[in-house]
Amino acid sequence: MSSTDNDGAVQRIIETPEDQPSGRIDRFLADTLDDLSRSRIKALIEEGRLSFNGQVLNDPSAKVRPQSRYCLDLPAPRAATPQAEDIALHILYEDEHLIVLEKEIGMTVHPAVGNWSGTLVNALLHHCAGQLSGIGGVERPGIVHRLDKDTSGVMVVAKTDCAHQGLSKQFAAHSVERAYLALVRGGPKPKEGRIETRLARSQHDRKKQAVVRDPRSEHGRHAITNYKVLHGYGREAGQPVGSPAASMVECRLMTGRTHQIRVHMAHIGCPLLGDPVYGKVRTFRKITNAEGENLQDFSRQALHATILGFTHPLTKETLRFETPPPADMQRLIGFLEGL
3-state DSSP call for residue 157? Predict the structure, then answer.
């Protein structure tokens, strides 16, 4: 049985009989859904697109159970090639091999469901027309790292295969300098430290990442964030001196996992201000300054990729770029300074 939503996504529903033999769920689905390969099904499961009796199941090796209801969400098909679009970009550096830019708030990096146009890739296809060497056999920009849609800051993108390979190796070796400015609720204790966990897709919401709680588990991906408190603002009600209502924290990534900083800060009890996924927006909006103003108008995670440093993969020159937070974050900082 299947159904289709307004975005063109399809949900396949599979109910197992009482005498269903045991076996891997990915193999069972591949045998049942003959229009999907086992590798495709495995990838969909790892993306959190399979639910079992209402709970997300992201382990392809899980055993299939009798008298159960499985729902597999198939994303809507997308165009094979994104279209070039004339979208203004804030360029910090560019040569024939790569481009460094400051991504604006609200811009998605890759075309995907709900954002087929207006993305960074669409903009770069226009800006770099005739300069791309066919990365992976297709004329497209080489995206070697990403920023969330509502996270601003510095990014580097390859224009040639050689640059793409060289940058990818540096990111894989964790030799790229990446620093973010985050405005968080409360204040991390200690004021400087290291957060090291494993991150995996949430069992309850496939759009979210979560810390793997079992220290012995090998599920998920290793994630390391080094942090340092730069400023504290105000004082948290009912807490002792030295307990700020909010803080500015510098986060340096040793790994680059999806939503890593947002999940790690929430994990230590200091979610990013304005974060609609990992923070408590109602609590965030209760913070008021001396004039009685609140944070009603700030509606995204307060996170900016402020520093990016790497070795140019062709010239071997050391490149380092630093940008201040955008206007909305600057206004938020001004508000916090008045607490």
Answer: strand
Q: How far apart are CA 162 and CA 314, in angstroms?
A: 8
Q: CATH number for the domain including 12?
A: 3.10.290.10
Q: Is the pLDDT of residue 98 over 80?
A: yes
Which range of residues forms the domain containing residue 263? Answer: 178-337
- Catalytic sites, residue numbers: 148
| CA-wise closest residue to 75 among 115, 121, 108 | 115
| Helices 25-32, 38-46: crossing angle, 10 deg rounding | 130
Neighbouring C-beta atoms of residue 131, cutoff 10 Å? 15
Q: Which residues have CB under 8 Å from 247's CB, separation 6+?
A: 183, 184, 186, 187, 188, 229, 230, 231, 232, 233, 270
Q: Is 81 part of any domain?
A: no
What is the tens place of the pLDDT at every residue in 204-231?
Answer: 887 789 999 887 888 889 999 999 999 9
Are 193 and 167 members of one domain?
no
Q: Strand, helix or coil at 126?
A: helix
Give the span between the Cα atoms of 17 and 302, in whole angstroms.
49
The answer on 276 and 214 residing in a single domain is: yes
